[in-house]
Amino acid sequence: MSVRGVETDIVANMRHPRRASGAPGTDVPVAGGAAADDRAAATAALVALFREHQLALARTALMIVGDRATAEDVVQDAFVDLYRRIDRLTDHHRMLPYARAAVVNKCRTVLRRRKLAFRAGRTHEPPVWSAESAAMLGEERREVFLALRRLPQRRREALVLRYYLDLDEREIAETMGIGVGTVRSTVSRALASLADLLGEKA
């Protein structure tokens, strides 16, 4: 499904709420009145969030998983999952933190699967030098991107969230599911490791 397709699917389900969740073609009863209004408002907020933040989240995922196609799939899947839980997303201000956490968790799933594949003798080398990936990251970030790929997963996540999405320590802790103190030490160690890696190229 394309990036545009995710938005279209969410909007279509907003217009036809009886097929908003569950298996394809399955009618799911939806409450009327205030509950229906709340659902419509939450869906509209999710669509607006997708339009505003999907590119930044895709770039964040790209810096974690290494290729554009997988990054876009991660973001699409995250928003589809959020839509399936739309009735529980009552606080619209919490949608962006939920989306960030969902993207990071799905990136972790991708990396776990790659690790399992590697142990089984199958390797995955993301096309990080593709024109599309370079365009998403910017040419000046390529060297840093390659160095980031050599960091342990948690350190890579922490740096991307801190310096790419410009999140504060509390937001990073919430997104990664760790304590603020752990964020602080992880970022510090990650910066030291990154400096060492970049120094190798100097």
Could you walk me through the main structural features you see in this protein, from its secondary elements to its overall organization?
The chain has helices at 3-15, 34-65, 68-84, 95-119, 131-137, 142-149, 153-164, 169-176, 180-201. Mean pLDDT is 78; it is low at 14-31. Helices cover 71% and strands 0% of the residues. The protein is globular, with a radius of gyration of 19 Å. It has 202 residues and is mainly alpha-helical. It has 2 domains: 1-127, no CATH class; 138-202, Winged helix-like DNA-binding domain superfamily/Winged helix DNA-binding domain (Arc Repressor Mutant, subunit A, Orthogonal Bundle), CATH 1.10.10. The protein is built from 9 helices and no strands. α2 crosses α4 (95-119), α3 packs across α4 (95-119) and α4 packs across α8 (169-176).
In short:
By secondary structure, the chain is mostly helical. The chain contains nine helices and no strands.
